[in-house]
């Protein structure tokens, strides 16, 4: 690769001159310069200076089988040689999306047997939004088009993704969201439970905010509820056990479709193929992306339930929607091989019975007692550490987010790549992590917490 002819400084200067980054303050980036990641192997990433970092985020919640999988490169190479691209418009198909769809129908919950492809989670959420509205129009109820989502939800960065999401900052920059989307409270007990309210009751109250929104709009005007089974970018917020069954009951009662966004939780992260199975949710659509290819190719799959699929077939009429790269042959070949690896190595089962419980135990026994930690939480290999000033009162360190950033910076300096969101430190590692990798992560995080506490208490 020709980049080796450039020094880090030169690459940083070219980066600053020509490359606009996602979710970045470009003024700040120009002052600091970007960290150049140049190599990766197994659970580790390496920067241009040779620094080794344990990747606690699986890239961006996606590299579930870890780095350096030659088989995935070969699957892409073989497919590119045979046929790099053909579209799936105009009654054409190519073999790899066909076979991938069959595989996904086998892995998905029973009521799901159809797949619509895109190249990103955002695109597939656009598809989901348009599809549920199309469904109700085909059913003769075009006014049943309102979508209920949650504050702090993340559903992507396209206009529809941003509108579905519940991030205030993103909405402010949107200058007009897709109409008819409303946001209710998030199910995050640690912050939102009332004094004396237990998790169970809080979960029911959070779910009933959806019912309130349905009643306010009139059920005849509500198309669907959308939610991440565990809110990811919003801070790995895990709902109480009472939440999803109540959401399901409410959706059924008012004939409101249930849309799940499993862009992060899909393909093994929670110890089942889908978090729908972990939480026992029967959904009408499930948005997936990221770990479908372990990030080796851009690919997303909207899994579509029988109810919607049957109406598309029964009523007919063209759904005016699709992407050049819907069902991309190379991306689908890589996805098939990736799913084969996950199955062959028993990674989903391993998360469920071994590494997931061990990860939870590590967080509880080694991290939860730390003076800066208000709460630890995890499901499978997805977790968060909540940073507070005072464990008893849950008082935060101000300004919001500053403490987690301090911990993150020390973590990175100590060989641990992890992310800070608000006051949450987030972990979503590759599913290849072993008990030894989890121990290594625990040590590095603890050290980062100690160093951050020293800085913060001094300040
Ligand atoms: N939904 C969820 C739950 C996500 O976490 C993300 C990305 N982090 C998206 C949608 C958007 O996916 P993408 O960045 O691939 O467009």
TrEMBL record:
**Pfam family of this protein, just one?**
Aminotran_3
User: Mind telling me which GO cellular component terms the entry cites?
Assistant: cytosol
According to its UniProt record, the EC number is: 2.6.1.-
Alphabetically sorted, this entry's keywords are: Aminotransferase, Pyridoxal phosphate, Transferase
* InterPro entries cross-referenced by the UniProt entry: Aminotrans_3, PyrdxlP-dep_Trfase, PyrdxlP-dep_Trfase_major, PyrdxlP-dep_Trfase_small
- Taxonomically, the superkingdom here is Bacteria
Q: Looking at the keywords, is Transmembrane present?
A: no
Q: Which GO terms describe its molecular function?
A: pyridoxal phosphate binding; transaminase activity
The record's family statement is:
Belongs to the class-III pyridoxal-phosphate-dependent aminotransferase family.
According to UniProt, the name of this protein is Putrescine aminotransferase
């Amino acid at each position: 690769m020709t980049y080796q002819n450039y020094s880090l400084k030169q690459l940083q200067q070219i980066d600053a001159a020509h490359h606009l980054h996602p979710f970045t303050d470009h003024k700040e980036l120009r002052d600091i310069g970007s960290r150049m990641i140049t190599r990766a192997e197994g659970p580790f990433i390496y920067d241009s200076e040779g620094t080794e970092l344990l990747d606690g985020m699986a890239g961006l919640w996606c590299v579930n089988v870890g780095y350096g999988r030659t088989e995935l490169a070969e699957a892409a190479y073989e497919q590119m040689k045979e046929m790099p691209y053909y579209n799936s418009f105009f009654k054409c198909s190519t073999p790899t999306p066909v076979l991938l769809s069959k595989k996904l129908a086998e892995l998905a919950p029973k009521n799901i047997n159809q797949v619509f492809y895109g190249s990103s989670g955002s695109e597939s959420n656009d598809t989901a939004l348009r599809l549920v509205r199309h469904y109700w129009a085909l059913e003769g109820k075009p006014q049943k088009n309102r979508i209920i989502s949650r504050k702090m939800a993340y559903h992507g960065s396209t206009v529809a993704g941003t509108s579905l999401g519940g991030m205030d900052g993103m909405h402010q920059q949107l200058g007009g969201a897709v109409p008819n989307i409303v946001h209710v409270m998030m199910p995050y007990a640690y912050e939102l439970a009332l004094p004396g309210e237990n998790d169970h009751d809080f979960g029911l109250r959070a779910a009933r905010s959806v019912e309130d929104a349905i009643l306010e709009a009139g059920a005849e005007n509500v198309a669907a509820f959308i939610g991440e089974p565990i809110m990811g970018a919003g801070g790995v917020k895990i709902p109480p056990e009472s939440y999803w069954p109540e959401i399901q009951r409410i959706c059924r009662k008012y004939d409101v479709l249930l849309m799940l966004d499993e862009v992060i939780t899909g393909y093994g992260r929670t110890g089942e193929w889908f978090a729908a199975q972990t939480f026992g949710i029967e959904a009408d659509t499930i948005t997936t992306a990221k770990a479908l290819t372990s990030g080796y190719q851009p690919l997303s799959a909207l899994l579509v339930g029988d109810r919607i699929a049957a109406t598309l077939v029964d009523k007919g009429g063209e759904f005016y929607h699709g992407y050049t790269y819907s069902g991309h042959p190379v991306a689908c070949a890589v996805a098939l091989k990736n799913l084969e690896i996950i199955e062959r190595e028993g990674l989903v089962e391993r998360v469920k019975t071994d590494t997931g419980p061990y990860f939870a135990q590590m967080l509880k026994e080694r991290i939860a007692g730390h003076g800066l930690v208000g709460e630890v939480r995890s499901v499978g290999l997805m977790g968060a550490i909540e940073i507070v000033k005072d464990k008893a009162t849950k008082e935060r360190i101000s300004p919001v987010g500053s403490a987690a950033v301090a911990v993150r910076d020390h973590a990175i300096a100590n060989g641990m790549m992890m992310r800070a969101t608000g006051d949450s430190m987030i972990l979503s590692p590759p599913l290849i992590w072993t008990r030894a990798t989890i121990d290594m992560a625990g040590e590095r995080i603890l050290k980062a917490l100690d160093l951050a506490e020293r800085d913060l208490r001094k300040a």
